[in-house]
Amino acid sequence: MANEEDDPIIQEIDVFLARSLLEKLYLFQYPIRPASMTYDDVTHLSAKIKPKQQKVELEMAIDTLNPNYCRSKGEQIALNVDGTCTDETSTYSSKLMDKQTFCSSQAASNVSRYAAAVYKKGELHLTPLHGILQLRPSFTYLDKADAKHREREAANEGGDSSQDEAEDDVKQITVRFSRPETEQARQRRVQSYEFLQKRQAEEHWVHLHYYGLKDSRSEHERQYLFSQGHGLAENTELIKSPSEYLMMLMPPSVEEENDKPMAPSNVLSMAQLRTLPLADQIKILMKNVKVMPFANLMSLLGSGTDSTAVLRCIQQVAMLVQGNWVVKSDVLYPKDTSSPHSGVPAEVLCRGRDFVMWKFTQDRWVVRKEVAAVTKLCPEDVKDFLEHMSVARINKGWEFMLPYDEDFVKKHPDIVQRQHMLWMGIQAKLEKVYNFVKEHLTPKKQEAQSAHALLVSGEQRVNMAKAKVKQNYGQLEKEFQKQKAEMKSNDTSAKMDVSNIHIKEEPVSDEEPMDTSGYEGMNNGIVNGLHAEDSTDSLNGHLPGGCIDRVAQELKAFVSSTFRKQFVLTLSELKRLFNLHLASLPPGHTLFSGISDKMLQDMVLDTGCKQILVPFPPQTAASPDELKVYALWEAGDTYDQHRQVLLEIFSKNYRVRRNVIQNQLSQECGEDLNKQEVDRVLKDCCVSYGGMWYLKGT
Asked: Which helix (H) or strand (E) holds 350?
């Protein structure tokens, strides 16, 4: 109240709404005018508009007599645009840039809150604006100048053509037949930028006539900005009750009302959800969540909901998988829709997704490649299916998203039996469509006291694979015993009793067996070529009899060839390459006799390599094998000295800049190396990250 007393009403002004120029009045916003142009007396040479796009082009004359106008620059621009000849197509007929074109763009998409006001004799007259356009200079004449320049260059290049070139060259024409356009392709084409630009260009310009500020026609048109009558009949919009007037000032958003989905599928409050029928509630929830236990569904539907009715409705939109409900494929992919990735019709997508659901009824794990091989669908579609109901596990596959719901299975055996029969029918259809191998279709045996399928974990699969390898152990054992007998017959000490042989045991702390756990599957259950059960007990790190020399030769050949290709290797990388080499060898090869880390490192040093003591940072997360770096010291080529200097640099620095390396090489080698030579040395030994150079593997 105090504020109202301090701010008294001085004057009341009547407001009138003028309708004569409704949907005809535009507001033009001109740019800051140059000194050579005044809008008060400027001459508008032409004006045109595209009403649908609300696009305007104005052509205005420039005062070339103004002292601020640069005449030489105007002549140069006109010459660049039109050239020396003058005809009807010339942009500047006076050989002088004497006009400027302005193009419009919409300053605001919604102008319903803007109006033009005229105050006269204590009355305020408002006219709603139909558009607000900002005018900006158009520089299309520069494009025309560039086109003229290219034409002149082309004419100069092709001016000296001979008579032999007078005839047109024969050109090959490729004829293509377009496919019938699908509805989805047509929608993409209609929404493309190119199509919209073409459509805008097709609208014809409507030429306008410009009237000056003091023209009589302008005076006449300005009178339409005033309300034509002050009677109540023509101004009933402004005579409203306070509530109606407030509604006019703050109308409800029509866009929000139109955007509300009939059956909400994106953002939906629980209050809105519970206003829908029970079947629609369940369908919307399952379509959004895709996988849900029955207990969670009941909690979302609220207290007092009949579970029998829910069970009856849920079976219409979902299938039972491992005691949980998964939304049906035809709910996610309705008829007459297609894949957003590949354009495959909904019917094919439903079959592929049903196959994935059926696989999860048999096992908790599904392999993506197997699904793609059977369904023949693109990887994106297969990934969508799997993401609906499972989670990716590294090196294992896709695991079903939820744990087995044993409570629901025990409480509702009739539902479980009915769903089992439905899955049997789906299985029969999938068998006909995909032509399975019968092994894929045979359901796993269920335990007598458990209603759910047998679950096989990743560890169980590994154990099964190991058991399968042990079954083939007999044949490998016979070959090994045969080779052992041959070696005994060739050895002079073979007559000695095996029990009298004393094998020297090396301390475990001095050397450890090579870590090949990452390559167990590659060697078919063997460690460095020997079965895990025999590798330490039978040989204990030593090689029998005359086999030592052959193993040493093979190992030396491998190390030498590897370092001549790589030059710098960490122990971890060398072990990885050695295991790959073992995997490529035939069974019974001499290198399968068991190679320890110490034997491998000793052989590296024997072949002319050196260990580079790289000063790794204290906070490094590298493993001990990654901290051991070996390099070939002499390769016998012209770059040996350069590589040795480079390795000496890295024995003092963990990372080095290129300019430091190049300066050091020039100083030590006594010559200026070119870029190619430095690149060659760096490529042999180093890698680059973020402008810094590191030794390979570090």
From this structure: helix 346-362
Residue 294 CA, chain-centre distance (Å), reads 35
Give the CA distances from residue 496 to residues 547, 549, 657, in Å, rounded to whole numbers and listed in that order: 18, 22, 64
Q: Which conformational region is residue 269 in: left (phi greater than 0), alpha (psi within -120 to 50 degrees), or beta?
A: beta
CB-facing half-sphere around the CA of 178: CA atoms within 13 A: 4
Give the angle subtended at the CA of 333 by the CAs of 328 and 337, to the nearest 5°: 160
Alpha helices in 129-277 (DSSP H): 140-157, 183-190, 193-202, 216-222, 242-249, 254-259, 270-273
- pLDDT at residue 237 in the model: 56
Sheet holding 123-128, edge to edge: 14-17, 123-128, 115-120
Contact of 405 with 322, CB cutoff 8 Å: yes
Which residue has better confidence, 428 or 465? 428
Predicted local confidence at residue 320, as pLDDT: 93
**Mean pLDDT lowest among 358-367, 531-540, 582-591:** 531-540
Which residue shows structure tokens 């302005």?
A: 102
- Residue 493 forms beta bridges with which residues? none
Contact (CB, 8 A) for 561 and 555: no
Q: Which pairing describes strands 123-128 and 14-17: parallel, antiparallel, or unpaired?
A: parallel
Q: From the CB of residue 508, how many other CB atoms can be counted at a distance below 10 Å?
A: 10
Of 476, 426, 503, 672, the residue nearest 588 (C-alpha): 476
290 CB-side CA count, 13 A:
15
157: which residues sit within 8 A by CB, 6+ positions away?
A: none
pTM of the complete model beyond 0.85 = no
Rounded CA-CA distance 311/319 in Å is 11
Q: Calculate mean pLDDT across residues 365-371.
A: 89
Instruction: Using DSSP, state whether 45 is helix, strand or coil.
Output: strand
- Those residues whose C-beta lies under 8 Å from the C-beta of residue 546, and which sit 6 or more positions away, are 487, 490, 491
| Matching residue, tokens 């929830």 | 285
Domain boundaries of the chain, sorted by first residue: 12-62+98-150+194-229, 270-434, 546-695
Q: Could you give the angle at which helices 368-375 and 379-389 cross, rounded to 10 degrees?
A: 130
